[in-house]
Design a protein that fits this description.
This protein is α+β, with helices and mostly antiparallel strands. It contains two helices and twelve strands. The strands form three sheets. It has a seven-stranded mixed β-sheet with strand order 1-2-3-4-11-6-9.
Length: about 180
């Protein structure tokens, strides 16, 4: 039995694997939840992929229920979400900021969609519906920050407008439940 740590904290809220083959268990979900509670943005991820340059990027992500995911889209990068813990709504927008679709997400057996693949290049965000949400996100690499485009009509995080915007999105989503 190895005593080598499975994960290395490389930045606040970012845990990276220490070997090429990784199994994720309950203790790992606890580790990412703990990292999330300690991170300034109250979000954390276990990077299951070896580095930012590999083609397949997989992360176990933990978000505090009050987290704001600014609407954004990616250039030619599909992504998928597989729920592990908690409930959320994936919200899709047109280019002007009008909500075009909501997809309710929940772990298998809890009455929602436990998996969703987003293949189109549309603005999207997650509205969190529980105190914590944990999911596996898969996308294509390599990772480059400039392939993520934030919606110009959505407020910046940690601004006065952000709180009201989050509340309006949550109200819209919960009215659709």
């Amino acid at each position: 039995m190895s005593t080598t740590p499975k994960w290395t904290l490389t930045a606040p809220g970012v845990l990276k694997q220490t070997s090429p083959d990784v199994a994720v268990n309950d203790d790992d979900i606890t580790a990412v939840s703990h990292a999330q509670s300690q991170a300034p943005l109250r979000r954390a991820r276990l990077c299951v992929h070896l580095n930012d340059d590999v083609q397949l990027q997989q992360m176990i992500i933990s978000l505090n229920g009050d987290s704001y995911i600014r609407p954004h889209k990616h250039s030619a990068k599909p992504e998928s979400y597989q729920m592990i813990r908690g409930k959320a709504a994936l919200v899709l927008f047109d280019d002007c900021g009008t909500i075009t679709k909501t997809v309710h997400l929940a772990p298998y057996g809890e009455g929602g969609n436990f998996f969703f693949r987003l293949s189109s290049e549309v603005y999207h965000s997650l509205v969190l519906l529980s105190p914590e949400v944990v999911f596996c996100e898969t996308t294509l690499g390599p990772f480059h920050r400039d392939t993520t485009h934030f919606a110009p009509w959505a407020p910046e995080p940690n601004t006065p407008d952000c709180t009201a915007y989050m509340r309006a999105m949550k109200d819209f989503v919960t009215d659709k439940l």
